[in-house]
Amino acid sequence: MAKVRLEDIKRRFNNVTAIEDITFEIPDGEFWVLVGPSGCGKSTILRTIAGLETATSGKLFIGEQLVNNVPARQRDVAMVFQNYALYPHMTVAQNIAFGLQMRKVDQRIIQERVVNVARSLSLEHLLDRKPKQLSGGQQQRVALGRAIAREPQVFLLDEPLSNLDAQLRDDTRAELKQLHHQLGITTIYVTHDQVEAMTLADKIVVLNRGRIQQIGDPQTIYAHPANEMVATFLGSPPMNILPAIYKNNAFDVNGQLLAIPANVAKSVHLPQGQNVDLGIRPENIYINEPHRYREHGEGELGELVVDVKVVEPLGRETLIRTGLPGSSVLVNVQVGGDVRLRLGDRLSLQLDLNHLF
Ligand code: ADP
What we know:
Elements: E1 4-13, E2 16-26, E3 31-35, H1 42-50, E4 57-62, E5 65-66, E6 77-80, H2 92-102, H3 107-120, H4 136-149, E7 154-158, H5 166-183, E8 186-191, H6 194-200, E9 203-208, E10 211-216, H7 218-223, H8 228-233, E11 240-247, E12 250-253, E13 256-259, H9 262-265, E14 275-280, E15 285-286, H10 290-295, E16 301-313, E17 317-323, E18 330-336, E19 346-352
Parallel strand pairs: 3-8, 3-9, 6-7, 7-8
Antiparallel strand pairs: 1-2, 1-4, 4-5, 9-10, 11-12, 11-14, 12-13, 15-19, 16-17, 16-19, 17-18
The structure holds adenosine-5'-diphosphate (ADP).
């Protein structure tokens, strides 16, 4: 196991800068997730750590060793890709043992490791099968097993769950978390899926256009996003963004006024007439929930009148997609239980202004 440190890493492809200013240190044994939209540079960072790409500038350390010029196979990292890449002619046991065979590890130790790895991934009963006799989820577990068996210093995972169907993805995600807990290997995981990032990570690195937007633990990033990109990327459904104009201690949202509560006003320092983007998460908007209103002090809720566009029952909760009358601005609301609303209904929303960004 080892810590991983990136210092001002940059990678250019011809004239295109894929990543720059990439600096962070992952302490030994932690699980970090690199997340961001497609093309933001996640894989380039991971491949640079693996030694499959070379940094144009900057320093990369694994443990205490500067590894910029160390070839991939000498870095003692194991990488798992989304397409498994198993050897089709070998059994599960042979696939798991492959890296150890190449290193001429003692046969007895190989046997032992294969059995242990198979046990921790629930693959014991499949050891004699060939990959094509396995489900996608089982194949991915074998790919993980092959990586674990080598007992690498660092584990690199590039979208390892994206080829699995929804249920299997959830199960395998939970297994991965358990496995990390068990093994404690420093892990760097790349995904575009914010749910995976939120659920798996000790720390999340949010990337956009090749640059780090924010680094933090999931709860902190969710509660205190550094900018609008982070705010709207993490959270499902995403944070609502309402264009508004600041006027006399209120925000004018397309002609509707949200008065700023006294406790929030202290932190608002804006010139009159300033255009702003207000952010509010769907779970901080209420409808028809009088008990919620009582929980809030005078002036902490603001009213917005909207038209119902779509109602989506999600079981325990209902997602209501609404729009501000006479504008294209959409407001998503997530409420508990069932609601009797129809397309085109006019609705009064109560916004919890303590949770306004
Ligand atoms: P992500 O993994 O977040 O989808 P990538 O790291 O794959 O993003 O890519 C980041 C940027 O670098 C993209 O604009 C991509 O087109 C570019 N890029 C990646 N690899 C190469 C390459 N081998 N040659 C040219 N451009 C590349």
